[in-house]
Fold this protein.
Amino acid sequence: MKNVIEYFITIFIISSGLLQSQTYNHLSLNDFEISNPAYIGIKDYSHISLSSKQSFDLQNKSSNNTSLYGSYFFENLNFFIGYSLNSFSFSDLGTSQYNASLSYVYKLNLNDESLIYPFISGNIYIPNKFSNLIFESPEPLYMLNSFQDKSYIDLNAGLMFKSTYYLMSFSLNNLLKAKLTEEDATNSLRLNRTLDLNLGYQNNIIRNTLGFAFLASYFYRPSSYNEFNFSEIRFDQVFLLASGLEIGGFQEFYSNSFSKKIKSIGFNAKINLNQFEIGVNYKNSKSKEISNTENYLGINLRFKFNLTKIENYLNKW
């Protein structure tokens, strides 16, 4: 019976997070573009990228999160069209989610060193589905059927400001507060709006040799169930070499209804090979909460094209 209760709690937490739509495992700064399209403007080029993350955790559960995403830069018109296709599957619990998004990002020059990238994106979601999820116990069989499988569409909007040294960004998500239940449902359920905030700083530590970038992030994630939220604080640090090698780390902290403690730490490395990028990532859980015991291994692949200028590997943006 204890295992049954733990599974129900786990499923409730995962489902609540997935229903809020913008739940991604960021293992590197590249991944921020998936949830905040303004990050397309980090560098002014077109690209296609593939990110895949496999989890293994303390409860012997496994999951996979795969994203195909990219953008095309219309340089003469100063805008980008971005796209992403994402899948999240939690195999041991029989639940999955699929979504796709299309975004418009405008490049606005304030002066020679400062730019703003406002965006709007449309997103379609096919929420989690529970397939043959049956638990056996001394009592009769239990089957979970608490969540609907209704697809929905919503909008996100925000912007990013970047200069030689500083970066600021926000994304306001679920603007339409899409309805998750059918019209005739007794207790209607809607998405709550969520918010991403980022502040960054970069500089050269050793001229023409070594650069450093720091990013602080706050993710406000209220659940569709008002008594809960899944908010987090995160800090990223990246060292950049003129050769194109990047080595970084990050720390995630709970700032939610369940805990204020450290959630996880992670490490990432990436090599730039002209038009290609290859990255590897690792995240280690520091939490004993049933809602988060995953350790992740990930890989990122990126192909860049329509490069407008020689890339400076010492600058993250």
Observations:
- Confidence is low (pLDDT under 50) at residues 1-22, 131-148.
